[in-house]
Design brief:
The protein is built from two helices and six strands. The chain is α+β, with helices and mostly antiparallel strands. A four-stranded antiparallel β-sheet has the order 1-2-5-6, with helices on one face. Strands 3-4 form a two-stranded antiparallel sheet.
């Protein structure tokens, strides 16, 4: 697996993925790595133990990304549709 970032200037997003925008609230992220365990092509932890979005996110299934967000104990992963409506957390 590559640790190449989807957006090196914004490692925790927001980034575009298909019809979604994914963003990780670094203040809420506690580095539990549940997202990494569930969706390893999408997420990894950086040197500060904060979740980052990998360029290989495009290879991850939407269901896995959503499950990764749902698995976050602090709901730090925010997913919105192309209209800015929150998909998760609601």
């Amino acid at each position: 697996m590559s640790d190449t970032l989807k957006d090196p200037a914004n490692p925790s997003g927001p980034v575009s993925y298909k019809n979604w925008k994914i963003h990780i609230d670094r203040d809420m992220c506690i580095g539990a790595a549940t997202c990494v365990a569930i969706a390893p092509k999408a997420f990894n932890l950086d040197s500060e133990a904060k979740s980052i979005i990998l360029s290989s996110v495009e290879e991850e299934d939407e269901t896995m990304i959503l499950d990764g967000a749902r698995g976050c104990p602090t709901a730090a992963i925010i997913i919105e549709d192309q209209n800015g409506e929150k998909i998760f957390p609601k």
